[in-house]
Structure formats: C-alpha cells, structure tokens
Amino acid sequence: MSRSRPVVTAASALMAVAATEGVRRLDRAGRLPGGRDRWARTNHAGAPVSLVEGVALAVGTATALLPVRPAVAGAVVLAGVAGALDDLVDDGAARGLGGHLGALRRGRPTTGVLKILVLGAGGMLAVVVHDARSPRGTGPHTLAGAGVVAASANLANLFDLRPGRALKVALLPALPLVVLGQPPAAAVGGAGLVVLADDLAGRTMLGDTGANPLGAAVGAAAAHRLGAGGRWTALAVLTGLTLLSERISFSRVIDSVPVLRELDRWGRPR
After folding, report:
1. Residue 83 near residue 213 (C-beta atoms within 8 A)
2. Is 32 left (phi over 0), alpha (psi -120 to 50) or beta?
3. Closest C-alpha to 147, from 226, 91, 38
4. CA separation for the pair 153, 77 (Å, rounded)
5. What pTM was estimated for this model as a whole?
6. 111 alpha carbon, distance to own chain's centre
7. Which of 252, 175, 58, 176 is nearest to 264 (CA)?
8. Closest alpha carbon to 149 in 82, 80, 222
9. CA dist 240 to 12, 16, 145, 211, 244, Å?
10. Residue 170 burial (CB < 10 Å; 0-12/13-18/19+)?
C-alpha cells in the first residue's frame, strides 16, 4: 500500500461524515426537496419513519468519492436514483426479483426492472473504468466485477427489513476493505456510522434510496480489490443469496439462530 493511500482513505471517510451530516441538517431545517413529508413512511412495526437517512447516505458517499473514484461516485448516484424511484413511485404490487420479472413477462414493466438495469449499468461504470487503468485491463473478470457491484446493491436492499440490519451486514465486510485502503468502503462506512444510531432507534430508515448505494459502494470496493477468481466467487455467493431470498425469509432464518438474532438486535431499544 502506498503512503498516500491511507491518507486518501481517511479523507474519504471524513468527507462522507461531513456531507452526510450536512444533508441531515438540511432535513432538520426543512430545506430538502419536497419537504419532510415527502420522505415520511411507515416502518415494519407501523411506526412513522423518515427515508432521509437513505438520501443522506447516498449523497455523503457520492460526494466523498467524487474526487478519488468518480466512476464509483457515479454508480452510487445511479443506485440512489433508481432506489428513489422505487421508494417514491413504485406501487409495491410486484415483490422480489421473481415478481418484477414476472410483471415484465406480462407486459407490465415496473420500477424494479428499471432498477435492475440501472444497477447493472452502475456496476459496469464502477468496474470498467477501474479495470481499464489496471495492468490486467478489461475482460470477462470485468463483467464479474460489475455483477458484484449490482448484486451487492440489490442484496443490501433485501436486508433492509429491520432497524440497523442492512448497515450491519454491509459495514462488516466494509471494515477490512477500509484497512486494505479502499476509498469506497471508507466513504460508505463514514456515512453509515453517521446514520446508524437513528436507524437502530427506528427514527429513520435507508429505504431503496440508501440501501442500494450502500451495497453498491461496498461491492465496488470488493470488486476493485479482488482478482478474477475472487470476483467470480463473490458473484456466485451473492447470486445464490439473492435466489435464496426468493424461497426463504432472511428474517425468519436470523430469528431462528440465537447468535444471529442477538447480533441483529444489538443496538436497538429493548
């Protein structure tokens, strides 16, 4: 690792913290587009919650990455915009990958299908630029890396069903990637830590607007670090988990395993 890499990584985290907190302050001042009511939702427990957390995380992560990994910043923005369409426009009639693809086969394209395409495009953007500048260049491994970014973005959203869960799942692999000098992991880690307390308390939630950028940033950090074999392995694991989610409930599995249940509940009000 070059001497400058730890500095860049630390700077990315600090910039993400500042930008994320800036969005939160704008929200408290009622200065976000559409006002506070535009981002109001009801969570799984029927309590009022705000989606501004997702906006703050996406903006904070992208802002921090713009000077150092602009292609990844673009992928994060694309993931956030696609997620926002789902949060603000989708009627919720189609659920899961199978539901959205089924609707498409019946001639009723959904925002979920659009999101799949946008996440794929964002993944390609984040990885093609990186690979084109690396000694190995682009190739089949580039497609695998793009798949890792897109699948990570989608998987993070599948875990965003309980307070703090998606952030915990994403920040766990982000930490070693930060140590390895990956700015995308540092940026999303800094942004995630800013919003974590309110997420755990159930005051705010990521929604698709924040969960998709969260996963995309971690996925990009992993893709940039992994070799060809590692990318294909990661893609296989992520694809398997996504397909598994169509058959079983992650929440049910987590609740049935004591260790996972305690980790999942850690930090929430009892």
Report:
1. yes
2. beta
3. 226
4. 12
5. 0.90
6. 17
7. 252
8. 222
9. 32, 31, 16, 19, 6
10. buried
Write the DSSP string, 114-134: HHHHHHHHHHHHHHHHHHHTS
**Which residues, in sequence order, are CB contacts of 210 under 8 Å at separation 6+?**
51, 53, 54, 55, 56, 57, 58, 80, 83, 160, 195
How many other CB atoms sit within 10 Å of the CB of residue 194? 21
Q: Higher confidence at residue 217 or residue 31? A: 217
Most confident of the following: 4-8, 55-59, 266-270 = 55-59
Q: Write the CA distances from 190 to 48, 171, 197, 203, integer angstroms.
A: 26, 10, 13, 19
**Helix (H/G/I), strand (E/B), else coil: 204:** strand
Q: Which two tokens stand for residue 50?
A: 């705000």
Query: What 8-state DSSP symbol labels residue 89?
Result: T
Q: Is pLDDT above 90 for 45?
A: no
Q: 62-80: per-residue pLDDT in tens?
A: 999 999 999 999 999 999 9
Measuring CA to CA, which residue among 81, 61, 75 is closest to residue 183?
Answer: 61
For residues 209 and 51, the answer to whether their CB atoms sit within 8 Å is yes
Residue pair 213/61 in contact (Cβ under 8 Å)? The answer is: yes
* pLDDT score for 246: 86
